[in-house]
């Protein structure tokens, strides 16, 4: 099964067969079975098929190979007779990287920050690492080498730079409250950088899908999580009035009542 196809059937949440099987196990154990900690080997594939019909397309041989890979990587364990499967602490750590968490509390001091950097082009690998990290912590790209964020990430940026020995200059500057950059006013800046209107539309489509196809719970759960992974989760006070993220989260909670407890 191709990577693009896997992303399509899981709403963009996972792109490999092993991650699909791992998340299927997690979904079945923690959501479908309400917090059970183990599953029979035969039940694993059946549970996966119930979670996503497409898992059935993973022929048994490939499914078992994915299970072996998960076990070899220490992401799952099985009993001596291989009849029971459980997700390990390492497996849950892997899932925590795949599965984003919705931030219900988002304290903010009202200040926006600009992050600029000057890293020599010969260090492209380091530049790419930094870009990936900035996006991961919710920063938005304004233009080449210029990022903005409502949070002061000076400390974690310093740690990241020191751990990886990045060379070059990285500056974090305050815009002040209600600040602007050049021709962009505050609201325009947020939309340009984070494209919240497109993100809100994706949440709206998720809500519509939950309304018209409520039985397809597993796909809807993964679809919401894939949208949330792209959501910078900005402070509630600066989100547009028509923002659909909070309403989508309420719908998600009803779809996966045990989900938040399961991630712990």
TrEMBL record:
Tell me where in this chain the Transcriptional repressor PaaX-like central Cas2-like domain is found: 106-170
Q: Which Pfam families match?
A: PaaX_C, PaaX_M
Instruction: Report the SUPFAM superfamilies cross-referenced here.
Output: TTP0101/SSO1404-like
All residue ranges annotated as the Transcriptional repressor PaaX-like C-terminal domain in the record: 219-261
One of this protein's GO BP terms? DNA-templated transcription
Against Gene3D superfamilies, the record matches this protein to: 1.20.58.1460, 3.30.70.2650
- Mind telling me which PANTHER family this protein's record contains? PHENYLACETIC ACID REGULATOR-RELATED TRANSCRIPTIONAL REPRESSOR, TRANSCRIPTIONAL REPRESSOR PAAX
Under which name does UniProt file this protein? Uncharacterized protein
């Amino acid at each position: 099964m191709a990577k693009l196809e896997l992303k399509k059937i899981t709403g963009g949440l996972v792109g490999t067969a092993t991650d699909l099987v791992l998340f299927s196990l997690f979904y079945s154990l923690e959501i479908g079975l309400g917090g059970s900690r183990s599953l029979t080997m035969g039940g694993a594939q059946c549970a996966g098929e119930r979670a996503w019909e497409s898992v059935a397309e993973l022929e048994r041989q490939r499914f078992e190979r994915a299970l072996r890979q998960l076990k070899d990587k220490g992401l799952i364990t099985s009993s001596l007779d291989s009849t029971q499967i459980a997700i390990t602490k390492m497996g849950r750590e892997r899932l925590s990287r795949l599965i984003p968490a919705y931030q219900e509390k988002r304290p903010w001091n009202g200040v926006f920050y600009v992050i600029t950097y000057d890293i020599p082009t010969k260090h492209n690998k380091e530049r790419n690492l930094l870009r990936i990290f900035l996006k991961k912590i919710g920063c938005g790209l304004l233009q080449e080498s210029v990022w903005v964020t409502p949070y002061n990430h000076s400390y974690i940026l310093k740690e990241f730079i020191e751990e990886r020995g990045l060379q070059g200059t990285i500056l974090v500057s305050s815009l002040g409250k209600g600040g602007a950059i050049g021709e962009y006013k505050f609201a325009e800046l947020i939309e340009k950088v984070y494209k919240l209107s497109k993100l809100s539309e994706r949440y709206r489509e998720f809500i519509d899908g939950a309304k018209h196809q409520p039985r397809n719970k597993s796909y809807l759960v993964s679809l919401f999580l894939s949208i949330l992974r792209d959501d910078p989760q900005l402070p509630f006070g600066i989100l547009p009035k028509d923002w659909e993220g909070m309403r989508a989260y309420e719908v998600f909670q009803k779809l996966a009542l045990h989900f938040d407890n399961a991630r712990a």
